[in-house]
């Protein structure tokens, strides 16, 4: 049959083979499809090859011959693809068909050709087809097909996917059902699809997403993220010996992916979607699970909590990645000023709700799956404003008690709010649809005003009780925890996370500088500063002093971050505003570091080489806090063994060599900080400067070094006779002394005030300096 058909359409076997990219060959393939409408075991390979050939011709026609698409549309050839799928033809045909369609849409470049393919709604029928998604290959090609279609979305093509009359958007709703798929590549593809959808500036489509899908999708997404966080916390709690870092790395990477995805949604700047997402993130994830875990770690209860280190670590990631101002400012308000909403919970409920419902902030699982919620919304007989059941303690009583009049009124208000709306601008009807429960700045002043009116009718005892309550209300439990973590004398496990959190908050572009300045947190962009946070500065200096002790448990990363935050607090464009007492304490810590380095100088033969290497490493690789917070090793308790593979600066030293390296690094950091705070330039480091080094082929006048070089009698003459006088090693002619400068304690290793180059690569230096004979002068 196949051979006779080729002769009948193409005029012979040879001609058809030679000209497969032509309209005639497409007609021949159409004839093949009409003769094989039913898929059997015998013709399935033929049908697969036919579909592949049709795809090739369509791609060729897109570039060369528009009549190809005319014929394709005229004969309604896409219906054959759909019929093949509906026949339960097996995974082989489904995989090949999805793969072919994916290739087809990827390679179509002209919009007219794309419109031909998307017409008649056949693509949407393929999207909603019930594939066997338990098959990994079918799942992979299906989600790739959806992602390819989403890349073609714009203000024109979106009308082929979103139907305003039926309120249906299959491309989007079918994709988000796989947001929690076990395979990470599928989840990534779903995120790409949703972002491509949100970027399309079509108001009807965006309002549909907000009204029908935003609440179920974001509530399930938040629960999915929180579940991963709890799993991450359990992994940290059970992996004190660093044996399960692979799984921990995967969980941290997944959390980072989630945060970047959330930030990508927020920066699209579709305001009503941002409001819904911000609401869910604050009240269903960040506040109840992350922030509330910062205090009362010893108290039990039904509310899920995570450990303090994990909470600080994740909050640091949030502030480093997400810069949406309403979200980060509300989150910082709770951390820095305490959770006023919990203190006033009962009062707020009496004023605003007059009912005894539980707090609206909690991390709870949605009552329905996302797929179930989407199906219910799809089959509703009329368009209704979807209230947020999760924000009413998952209660639908109010909606059920509503009469048709109230529903109709809501529909009218929503219609008024959506008419004439523009992207990024809140419409009038959204205030009722989106019940924002973010911390409202107006609640506290209103509450204070009502309290002052009541004071006129209260007794002295009641006023006294109110005063006690006020002191509790204005406490800052989370900020107190931050300071307490910096006071830990045992180790820097918690202190490192606190410093990272403070750094992330102060460098967040969405943060309100006034909010940080009110509590005197360091603000890098502040033009002029006259005051700084004394308690924080004292704790930072205390960390520096601990790091300079021989048995200090402060890691180099913690010390470097402490120096960075202190400098950020007290150094301004006009000078340094640090108090003399704090500067004196810092100089004391620097003196301790000098004594620490002095202890290791005589014990290590390669001290000078280590000294140069550590300085070079420290200056070439400054700290990057974002990279630091991607490292899972800091989530585990500090370890002192290099066998874990953890970077040296992120763990405690092991052995004399690493202790020497640490002492050198501590000295460098405190010396550099001291010089910057005193406004003095660095004139002594590095010891070896490029301009001072003797290069290859340079002439070395030994007379300049004669008075400072000693050799046993007779050795010089023997070396000169061998012609190697210029490369002989120098020996120490002077003594090694330790002195103190009049300005501050310092370490001085000198050799008759002579400065000679030390050992390095053969290409750069000629001199081969013996360890312990170079000048190191620190002022």
TrEMBL record:
Domain annotation CLEC16A/TT9 C-terminal: ranges: 243-703
Biased composition, class Basic residues, residue ranges: 379-390
Pfam families documented for this protein: CLEC16A_C, FPL
Keyword annotations from UniProtKB, A to Z: Autophagy, Lectin
Source species, domain of life: Eukaryota
GO annotation (BP), single: regulation of autophagosome maturation
Region named Disordered: 374-433
Gene Ontology MF, one: carbohydrate binding
One GO location term (cellular component): late endosome
InterPro entries xref list: CLEC16A/TT9, CLEC16A/TT9_C, CLEC16A/TT9_N
Domain FPL: 51-198
Stored PANTHER family: PROTEIN CLEC16A
UniProt family annotation: Belongs to the CLEC16A/gop-1 family.
Protein name listed in UniProt: C-type lectin domain containing 16A
Protein's organism: Molossus molossus
Lineage of producing organism: Eukaryota, Metazoa, Chordata, Craniata, Vertebrata
